[in-house]
Amino acid sequence: MRRNGWALVGVLAILALAGCGERQELETQAFVSVIGLDQGEQDHQVNVTFQISNPQVNTTQSAEAQKEPPSDIVTITAVDLLSAKELAQSSLSREITFSHLQTIIVGENLAKGDLFSHVIGSAIVDPEMRREAVLIVSKEPAEAFIHANTPTMETRPHKYYEFMEDNWRKTGFSPVSNLNTFFQRTEGELFLAAYATTERDSVGTKHDDEYLAGEVPQASGDPVQMIGSAIMQKGKMVGTLNGEETRISQLLRKKNLIETMTTTFPDPLNENYRISLIMNQSAHTEIKVNTDRTPVKIRVNVPVQVKVNSNIALEDFTTSQKRRDALKNTVKENMEQASDSLIKKLQEEYTGEPFVWYATARKNFWTVEEFEEFDWGEKFKKADVDIDYEVSIVSFGEQLRPPAFKKLKEGK
C-alpha cells in the first residue's frame, strides 16, 4: 500500500507540473488589440495591419514609458491573416498573440470583394481569434484609418474601441456588430457592420441622425467619425445605411440592442422649430409573418416611449390633451414614414433584410429545406409590410414647469 501511495503522489505531481510547460511570461508577448485588413496590390493578397498595445502606458509603469508610444503599428502583405501574423515576427522581438484582440477593421475596397470572406473565414481557425471581436468597415484603407485614429482623450486603442461600442448601445448610430453575428448571416441575410472614416465629405446640414460617417459637420476634435452602417451580404459589402436608417433597423428587430436614443422631430405646434426627444422601447418589437399568402404579409408593431428632452419653441404640452396627441401623432407619423422609406430601399436594392424577420418566417416551415426552397430573400422583395409604432409619452421634461412657459414667451 505504501508503494502504491508514493506512486500515486508521483503521478499527481507530474500532472500538476505538466501544466506549466506552455507557460509564457507577459513581457514576452505582443498583444494585438486591433487588426486592419486591406486589398493587396496583387490578386489574392491582403495587407494586414497589426496595432499592438504598449502594456506599460497608463499603468503603474507609465513613468518608465513616458516617451514610448501607446501602440506599435505594423503592416504585412501576405496571402492570409495567419501568414501575416507569422511574417510579422521577422521584425518583432515579442511573440504576437490575438488573445486581447477586440476590433477588426476592414477597408471598404476589400469589403466589397469576394476575398474578404475567404480571409476572415480561414483566420477563424486560430483559437485566439475571438468571435466577439467588433467588425468595422472603414471608408478609406484600414491601414490609413488606424494610423489616423489618434484620439485625444484615450491613448489605449483597446479602450477607445470598447468605449465606442458602449456609445453605440446608447445612441444607435452604429450597429453592435461582431464576427460571430457576421458568420451567422453569410448565407444571404443582410448583416450590418459599423461604418467609420477619418475623412471628411461635406454635404451640408441635415437632421441630427441622417448623416453617414464623414458627413457630420465637425470643425475640430478627434478625426474619426462612426455613424451609419455597411450592408454586408454573402460576405461582402453591398451598400450603406445612414444613422437614421441604422437606428430604425435596430428598432425593427424583435430584440433591440439600443438602450436609449435622442432624436428630433418637427414641433407640431410651431413649424419653425424642432423638438428633441429621448426614445426607448417599453417592450420587444412584435413581428408576425404570414407565408401562406402571396405576397407575404409582414406586420410589425414597435412600442416606444418618449421623453421631451429640449423644447426650443417653449410650447406647453402638459395642460392640453390635444397638444399631447399632436406630439404623439407627429412621432408616430415620422417614424412610420422613415421606416416605410427604409423598407422600400431594401426591397428595391437588396435581396434580404437586416431585421432578422427571416427567423420568424422560418417557424412556419417544418424543415430547413422547405424554408430554403421558399427563398425568403425574393419573397421579402415583394412582401406587403405594415409597420405600426405605438407611442407613449412618459415625460415632458423637468427643466421648466408649465406656468413658466407662458411667462417666457410673453417676455415676463
TrEMBL record:
Q: Where in the cell is it found?
A: Membrane
What membrane topology is annotated for this entry? Lipid-anchor
Q: Which residues form the Spore germination protein N-terminal domain?
A: 23-189
Identify the keywords attached in UniProt to this record, alphabetized.
Germination, Lipoprotein, Membrane, Palmitate, Signal
Q: Which family does it belong to?
A: Belongs to the GerABKC lipoprotein family.
- Organism per entry: Bhargavaea beijingensis
- GO BP, sorted A to Z: spore germination
Instruction: Indicate what this protein is called per its UniProt record.
Output: Ger(X)C family spore germination protein
Q: Where is the Spore germination GerAC-like C-terminal domain?
A: 228-397
Give the lineage.
Bacteria, Bacillati, Bacillota, Bacilli, Bacillales
PANTHER family per the UniProt record, alphabetical = SPORE GERMINATION PROTEIN B3
The entry's cellular-component GO terms read: membrane
